[in-house]
Amino acid sequence: MSLWQSYIMRLRRKRAQIRAWRKHFAVKPVRDRTKQIKPGDILLFSTFRNENVRLPYFLQYYRKLGVSHFLMVDNDSDDGGREFLTGQPDVSLWTTKASYKRSRFGVDWLNWLQRKYGDGHWTLVVDPDELFVYPFCDTRPVRALTDWLDSSGVRSFGAMLLDMYPKGRIDAVNYRPGQDPVEIAAWFDPGNYMIERNRSYWNLWIQGGPRARVFFPDRPKKAPALNKIPLVKWDRRYAYVSSTHTLLPRGLNLTYDQWGGEKASGVLLHTKFLDTLPQKAEEELKRRQHYSGSVEYKAYAASIQRNPELWCNWSEKYINWRQLEILGLMSKGNWA
Amino acid sequence: MSVGIIMLVHTAFDRAEQVARHWAAAGCPIVFHVDRNVPSKTYNTFVNAMSDLPDVRFVKRHRCEWGTWGLVAATQEAGETMLAEFADVRHVYLASGACLPLRPVQELIDYLADRQTTDFIESATTADVPWTIGGLDQERFTLRFPFSWRQQRYLFDKYVQFQRAVGYKRHIPNGVVPHMGSQWWCLTRQTLSAILEDPERKAYDRYFRRVWIPDESYFQTLARLYSRKIESRSLTLSKFDYQGKPHIFYDDHLQLLRRSDCFVARKIWPFANRLYDAFLTDQDSAMKRTEPNPGKIDRIFSKAVERRTRGRPGLYMQSRFPAPGREGGLTCAQYSVFEGFSDLFENFEPWLAKATGARVHGHLFAKERVEYSDGQHVMNGALSDSAKLRDYNKRAFLTNLIWNTRGERQCFQFGPRDMIEEIEWDIAKDPNAQISVITGAWAIPLFKSNKNFSDIRKEAALLQQIESEHLKALRSEWAKARIRIWTLAEFIEAPMEPLQTVIDEIGKQYQRGLAEVPKMADLTGFGQFLQNLKNQGMHPYLMGDFPVAHGRHEPQQSKRKPYLVR
Known about the structure:
The structure holds two protein chains of two kinds.
Chain A: H1 2-23, E1 28-31, E2 42-48, H2 55-65, E3 69-75, H3 81-86, E4 91-96, H4 107-118, E5 122-125, E6 130-133, H5 142-151, E7 156-157, E8 159-163, E9 187-188, E10 193-197, E11 204-208, H6 209-215, E12 231-233, E13 239-242, E14 246-248, E15 266-270, H7 277-287, H8 291-306, E16 316-317, H9 321-327
Parallel strand pairs in A: 2-3, 2-5, 3-4, 8-15
Antiparallel strand pairs in A: 1-4, 5-12, 6-15, 7-12, 9-16, 10-11, 13-14
Chain B: E1 2-9, H1 13-25, E2 30-34, H2 40-49, E3 56-58, H3 70-85, E4 89-96, E5 100-101, H4 105-113, E6 118-120, E7 124-125, H5 139-142, H6 153-166, E8 179-180, E9 186-188, H7 189-196, H8 201-208, H9 218-226, E10 229-231, E11 236-238, H10 254-260, E12 264-266, H11 273-281, H12 295-309, E13 335-339, H13 341-344, H14 348-356, E14 359-363, E15 378-379, E16 383-384, H15 387-392, H16 394-404, E17 410-414, H17 423-429, E18 433-439, H18 443-448, H19 453-475, E19 482-487, H20 488-493, H21 496-506, H22 526-535
Parallel strand pairs in B: 1-2, 1-4, 2-3, 6-10, 11-12, 13-17, 13-18, 14-17, 18-19
Antiparallel strand pairs in B: 4-9, 5-12, 7-8, 15-16
Helix pairs in contact in B: 3-7, 7-9
């Protein structure tokens, strides 16, 4: 039985790789600086569309953490983001006009790039609105973490998506390029997350947070998944199957302890809820390129017209990773 | 007289060089052993880089893999060179490339000069310490280990199993008692030369070659044979986690390391620039003659190991999701569940809150919405009051609530009208739950209601069925909660005593006895109501033995004044 299951998983992994190969023809290089990549470099992979306003801070944040090279796929932006990235010395850029949805929300494109350039490197896959927070990130670069993971024989590192939101209306404060988005979206839900274990892929399925509380209180099953595994010591045989929620081979999804202990984990601060969202929601509704018939954006659009306030009495204001650790949203594990 | 340093290096050569120059500047001769796995190009560069220092030697390279003989062979080789080439060395200090001197080298030299015949080597018998990894303690000395644990794990395990099965046991030469301890030691010339020049050395070497992790036991055992004075501790601060790999020091450990007063620390992350800058340049700190005191570092690392192995019970998160039965307790703190009390008493919730100071919720698992205390719509942790969200994962709801309100006792109402499926078992099995039940009290709201009797009868039958199923859970052998069950008739005979017991258990601060009692519902005619149900063919048995007629069993409380002071 389990042999059969392993075989099915192998087929799925192969299929993901074939898809990645098929879809890569539509992805054209704009600026290829991958020759600069040295062995042992930490690489960041990301796909984006019309995120120009976020890109300056995004690059600044991850450069500071010690990411050596950015491999970005532009999905037909028309806001100048592509031109901005072309001028960055540590960015390799590709562009495509192909369908985001039919590349399984960018996974196919990135799987291809990771297979080609990520083999043997620690790779970080994040969206432009996600800021990676890990234990000791204020004093230790990502390399300290990856060296420690290497020495512990760990290949993947989990970081849950934590939705950040402002106090007051989402569109009350204007986000400026280069600004730390957490200055505006400073609040989060500290303790309303629900976890289940996926029996076939072995990963955890986490839902909850403000999106479940405000947008999906009557349809909890539809609430978006928050579990992510963004940091992986990549091997060309690996593949992401759905966003960065699920990896194959399945062993990579075991980023949690099942015996009562805690493994080390981080958080992705998700700064989607800024004044840029209403416009984005409208656009995405028209394009219908998002997960599950864009049900998420439909819900946003509906609620945003009513009262776009996610903040509540029990919202917590973000201070640092130690706060998240104490609240139990992430863990140091045995890293000290 | 000086201290000689043996340095085992296999990576981060720039750091090794930096540290070596630091030792050399204080007049310490150094013997290097470089792992044979290092490419010869890298090796030659390193040798060239060190060539300007006069008192530096390199020895024959051995392949050093964790847990194998190579490390001991390398150390022996370096020790021989050290003793032969530097005649005025009295103490030999074994260090690695990732070791960092924390105090001025002169302090170490002085410290050792004051203890000329003392060997600093951690050395304990296997029976006395729980250090071992992988379940092999005594066996690491009585079995043979020809396979690598890292690279040939399968063969390693199989061969151990095989030897156990056939009852193989090695003979320990000359009846020495195996000792083990940290591999980083500091031995006197006398002891080290005695070990290296021992006429029996061949026999010992042959034996230890097949011991598991000989670098933690070879010198530790043999030092016992020759040392005049052993201080069983390492001068190198080195901590290991539960997998047996060393904890690593980073920039943010600077103050911690400063205050530890240890001479040398390992292992330092090669990119910890601040640590290297601080400890290798800043030499003018006052000479302290203090003993090393790594207590605080010990605590931090042992806490980290506990976090990894035990975690925080009652917390479910992305990297702690125990399989059922391995949670170490479903919830993180004690809480109280009341069943039937708010049916029997009109003002039970405010009364309980006042009497105990705890947070008292209504029916958290009510059908329509989550009834948080004071009618709130969102609770600690931003928990929603949506019944659908709660029912989507009731277990997560409960554990979240208890986790979010750490430090404040939670009480809530529970009963057959609620969505109790599944969660009733979780609560019954949770040792943190204190469950108090008045069975049959669900009939009181029916009795007070203005419904048609046929509907009442139908509902009573349903509730009775649910509650009796629920009682099975509470009385099952798996129930681990603190459970108290009274029938309604039993309870109203003497309500104060059970109330007092339950409340004493909740809070310690209200030991004086209850100043107020809650107001009980007026039960005049309740006996007749139950009889009517019986007459309709529906036998309400969970209330206990309730007399029909007004008589001495009719509850007295209903006629009393609602409040009394004891």
